[in-house]
Amino acid sequence: MTIVASSETKEFFILDRNVDVPMRDGALLKADVYRPKDQGKYPAILNLGPYQKDKLWVTPSNLEEKPNEYMNWETINPEIWIPEGYVAVRVDGRGTGKSQGQYEPWSLGESIDIYDAIEWAASQPWCNGKVGLLGISYYAINQWFAANQQPPSLKAIIPWEGFADIYRDGLYHGGIMCLFMSNWYTAHLLHHNLGRASQTVTNAWERNVLSFWLRNNLDTGALRGSQADWDKITVPFLSVGNWTGMALHLRGNTEAYMCSPSKNKKLRIQNGSHVHAFYTTEGKKDQMRFLDYWLKGIENGVMDEPPVKLAIRHGADKIEWRYENEWPLARTQWTKSYFDLSKATGPTGPFTSALTHNNPTKESSCTYPATGMGTMGSTSAASAQVMGGGIKPDMGVALYTEPMKDDLEITGPLAAVFWVSSSSEDMDIFITMRHYDENGEEILETGQQGAPVPVAKGWLRVSHRELDEKKSLPYRPYHQHQRRLPLTPGEIVQVQVEIWPTSMVFKKGHRMRLDVQPRDGIGSASYLHYHADYNTGTNTIYAGGQYESYILLPVIPKA
Fold it and tell me: Does 382 score more than 50 pLDDT?
C-alpha cells in the first residue's frame, strides 16, 4: 500500500498495486486500485483489458487535462476522479500486463472475467456495492459484452466510442476484411512478446486469435461472445459515439441506442479526435453526472433531460451541440437523391456524374475498372494493402449534387440502394460522402485518429448482399453475412449498402459528392481493407428507369 500525494489537487489517495482478483476458475488477475484515503464506501469504476494497467500514457500536448504519473491509456484520471468520491479499479486481462493466462480479446471468456471482477469489487470494504464501467475504445467495447452477462452489481456503463459487433463493426465491413484489426492485434502481440510485458507474462499469446478471426469470415455464430445481445443489455447506459469513428466504433454506439430495451439510456455523439473529448471538462461533466446519479444516488436531473445530445457539424470541425428526444430524429425527412449516369464523363480519374431530385426516366450505366493494382507482384501488393497504397480516390464513379440553394442539414443513418454487375464473380463497393465549398475545395474533418476524414462511409462485398429482413430498416440495411451469393459475370443485382450515421450542414452554395469505388477512398488511411484477388476486371453501375438507384438522406428541416 502506498499513500500518494497529488501535486495537482493536493488531495491524497491510496494506491494498492497488483491486488489479486480471483476468477471463478481459480485464476488470479492483477489489479491496481486507486481509492480515497478517507475510510468509507465508494462506488467503483472498473476497466479490464490488455493495455497494461500501470503503463504510463504520455498524453498529447493539447489534451485539456494535464499529464501526471498515473495516466493510463483510455482510462479515467485518478487525480480527477478519486477526489470526487470514486474508486478506480484497473485490471490486467488474462495474458496481459501482469496477469497470467491466455489472452482472447473481446471473447465470451473475457466478459465472464469482467463479471467476476465487478462482483469482486462490489464486495470489497471500500465499495458501496455499486460498480460502473467507463473507458474509451477497448474499455468501451467490452462493456457491451460484460452487460450481456448482467452482473448484479453493475449499475451503469458509459461505452465511450466502442463497437458492439466485432463482425460488422470491426472485422468485416460489409463483409470486407478491415486491416485495422489485424494490425491492432499484431501490435499488442509484439508488446507482450518483445516489450516489457514479456518480462512478466509467459506464453500468454499462444492462441491464434488472428487465425480464428480470419476463419470466421461469415457471421456463423462463432463470434457471438463478441457481439452485443441487445435484449440482455438493460443496464442504464450513456452510449458515446463519434461521427468520425465511421470505420470502427460509431455504428455500435448508435445501434445500442436503437436496439437496447434499457429504459434508462442516453446517446451522445461528438466529433474529432478519439481521446480528446473524454478528458475535457465538458466531457467529464456528462460522465460524472450520469455516474453520480446511478452509482451515488445524487438527484441531479440528468435523466430528466432530453436523452440525445448531438454535435451538429458545420464543416471543418465547427459544431453546435443540440439536444434531441430520439434517434433517428422523428422529424427526419427521408429524401432520395438519385443517381444520374447519363452524362458520366471519364475515363481519366473517376467518372463524374450527378445526384438528382428525380429518378431519370432513361436507363444509363457506367463501367469502371475493378482494380488499380496493375500487375504488381505479391510483395508490393501486400505493401499496398498495409501501407496505404490501397487508397484509390481516383477510381469508380463520383456523383455530385448541384450547389445547395439553401443550407441543408443531414443528421442520421443513411443507405445507398442501386444496381450493379461485374465481369468477375464478386465486387467490392466502397462509398464515401464528401463535402465541397462554393469554390470547389473539399472540406474535411479531424478524424478519430487525427487524420483528415470526409463526411461518411459505407461498404459492401456484393456476394454478401443478402439482407436480414427482420432487422433491416429502409435507412439501415442489415446484412446476414451467413452465406455468399457469387455473381455470374454480367448479372445485374440490387445492392443495399449501409452507410454509417453522420451529421453535416451543407451550406448554401456547397455541394455533396458521393464516391462509389472498388477500393478504399479518401480518409481511409487508418482503416484499409483487404481486397481479395477475385475482385478483378470491370464493374458496372446502373441507374434510371427500372434501375432506380439512390442514396437515402436523413434531411432535417429547419426549426
Answer: no
